[in-house]
Specification:
mainly alpha
Amino acid sequence: YRIDHYLGKETVQNILVFRFGNGIFEPIWNRNYVDHVQITVSESLGV
């Protein structure tokens, strides 16, 4: 998915809270199920 960096800012900042604070996702969000997470910052002015 591609989104504007400002719209995704809060989600990226809270991704660990979401993983460990959610009993449904915590057991499956590990190296056995997630291949990789890619966050690309391609801003010409800086973030």
